[in-house]
Amino acid sequence: MTTTTPRVSDAYAERTAAFRAHIDAGGMVEATDWMPDEYRESALKFIEMHANSEIMGALPEREWIARAPSLRRKMSLTAKVQDEVGHGHMLYRVAEDLGKSRDAMISDLINGKTKFHNVFHYPTYTWGDVAVIGYLIDGAALVTQKALLESSYAPYVRVLKRICAEESLHQRHGEDLVLELCSGTAEQRQMFQDAVNRWWDPIMAFFGTPSTGRRDVLLEWRLKVKSNEELRQQFLTMFVPKLWDLGISVPDEALAYDEASGQWQWTEPDWDDFKRVVTGHGPMTETRLAWRRWMHEAHSWVRETLHSPTRAAA
Amino acid sequence: MSERWEVFGKRTLDDPWTSVGAVHAPDREMALLLAKESFFRHGEGVDFAVVRLDDIHTFGRPDLLEFVTDKSYKLQTGYTGMGDKRRKAHEIARETGAVIDRPRPSDKRVLNTEHRSRSAS
What is the pTM of this model? Predict the structure, then answer.
């Protein structure tokens, strides 16, 4: 990654101040607009990680296409995986305009130089995991992505509108899986409960640490508008009562809604473990990246064909 | 010779291009002028563009856009009756005494996904 060289020129400071005022007044930024280096770099890093996560996030579900319990489930899961990969490519297009080529982004991803979300570094064991991913992890993603519709970077917002529409369909798909398991046999209910137990900590970690007091560049430039904790609280409000109504418990003894403060109390996961996982040391990181590298290699002929000069038909 | 140009406008700079109509013009300059005079005289937007119709490549195969087999899982309408399914699952949990009845926020409408999907279907 490039680093910001401190600039002392008055003109730069002046332009940055004007840009800051524009952002603070609720203004939007286009790819062709002038922007401070810090804005460009933060936006690029953030959107690149989002794109990486869409691509890598398709893999845990992809593992279940061949094992889906019915033809309809197989086809709906395939359609969803296709949507996620599509989101990744739309986001790479947006990131590309900020100054890093798509080739470089893909190469950095498959060589483990850039990050993707923690939740996609874990293994899946049963169809219950697919239900958790479709319902709770997509739910967590939808909560964060809806908040990003207020972002200051206009090209990102335009793409997010379409992504959110598709994600809300995925949400239905996920809930349908959950309700099917919860209306099924005791074994099916247990399968879902076990999966919730496995994924709860990673999902809490997905939202990131509560405010650390450190400067949050993304919030400052209004690339993000809501804090980690606001989003996590919104997620808990949205999903915990629904799980309880289905007789599914959440594996956090301390989890409780405090009516006085209107806030959920919850237990923080092991943040060191989170940091290890998200920096590429999760249980499935190497396997999934290796698979992605292999596919990249195996499909190189497609890229070569598309990039080669057109030959006249004989 | 006059050609047909499709015209696209933006209501605000943040909006995507939206088709607003078409003009016939011999060249780009004339097409832009006619588009401005035809579609943007009353504050309809902040920018517009013209594209030669020949440069727009239509797919032209409606039959290939229809689903040959049932693909309702790609549509919001493929997931109707979720409320009934939710009630049924809740009922099953209630019968076995599994429901967890603890304090919870009274306002569940934090995100309007329910509302959104209803209006989309």
Answer: 0.83
Kindly report the CATH number assigned to the domain that includes residue B14: 3.10.20
pLDDT band (50, 70, 90) for residue B114: very low
Which residue is associated with the tokens 């989101």? Answer: A87
Q: Do B104 and A142 touch (CB under 8 A)?
A: no
pLDDT at residue A255, as a whole number = 97
Chain B within 8 Å of A26 (Cβ-Cβ)?
Answer: no
Range with lowest mean pLDDT among A85-94, B40-49, B110-119: B110-119
ipTM value for the complex: 0.70
Instruction: Collect all residues from B whose CB is shorter than 8 A from any CB in A.
Output: 13-14, 16, 71, 73-76, 78-79, 82, 85-86, 88-90, 92-94, 96, 98-105, 108, 110-111, 113, 116-117, 120
* Residue A165 contacts B, CB cutoff 8 Å: yes
The CA distance from A20 to B3, in Å, is 45
Q: Listing from the earlier edge strand, what are the strands of the sheet with B47-52?
A: B18-25, B3-10, B47-52
Determine the structural domain holding residue B19 and report its residue range.
3-55
Residue B18 lies in a domain: yes
**Residue B111 near residue A143, CB atoms below 8 Å:** yes
